[in-house]
Amino acid sequence: MSLFLSRKEEHILDGEEGEVLQKCYRLLVRLGEAFGADRLIPIKSAHLSGISYKSIGEPGLDFLEDISQEARFKVKTTINPCGMDLRRWRKLGVGEEFAQKQLRILRALRRMGATMTLTCTPYYLSAPTRGDHLSWAESSAVCYVNSVLGARTNREGALSALASAIAGVTPNFGIHKEEGRKPELLVKIKAELRSVSDYSALGFKVGREAGDRIPFFKGLKGGKEEMKALAASLATTGAVPMFHAEGLTPDWEKQDTIGLEKIEIESSDIRKVYEEFEGEGFEAAFIGCPHLSERELRELCHSRPRVRTFVCTARNLAPSLVRPLRKSGFEVLHDTCLVVSPLCEKYEKLAVDSSKAAYYLKSKAVLKRREELIK
To answer: What is the mean predicted confidence (pLDDT) over 321-327?
Structure first.
């Protein structure tokens, strides 16, 4: 199948609307051709990952500053957490050199038109609607919005999402098409899931089994926070772009599961995930990977941390809850996440309630249920 281009798109590829837009279209066209896209389709929004200086370093900073001289985003573009809390970085001990380079990255993104959301859960601030076509690069958010909200985005890389934000289009293949959203693996839940952390462990286990296949869950219960935790871990150990869950997700009744490979998840499978990251003697705890919802923040207000505990969330989500949380003893962080911040380097061991955080923090991480970290 050849990729159809309109006359206007052909002109853009010829460089008639500038070199930056030409390069963006060239990248998107080649991506579409590689995956059998039939055309480029307009998107409602883009979400960019890889904006922490810790992640992209000097080459990423130079690239963004260079491209921002000409490029402007054509659609609403939100951004992932950066490497520090923009208001409290000095108090938290972030170095001056790191901070100034991080601020330069943000200035470049703002110049292009990005909204300074600085969160991996942008759907809490402005939720896509069912059927919206997007170009998002944060894997946990991709899995969540495809599955729970019924929007449509492939697992974009940092560059393809950036190109789509500038061009306003994305190749029409994969999750954007109905046939790309069909389940490929049946997962029967026999495990007892008692905590949001257990859903995270479930995703960790199933992601390994699924690879890049779309799972269909039977026997799964839970609310949106549990689905967020599940989505994040599915997208961490696997390349899972979405899932279906009987009775929970928008399109589950349309799906045919006859003949699919089947796996069963027992409570012992969940325990084994915790055992991979066993340990004691942690110096601090980290809650908020992905960033917490307003409901989760409210629940924490009625508890106290057992050790110094960082809580990560979007700055504009629930500002009225910050004071009560800090009064309860929590260290509330905005704009960042310990996974992409130099703050984590200050600790030998960190307790986390998220399998995704444990996966990225590796030997630093001790995985616990959230309830074990608070009192």
So the answer is: 97
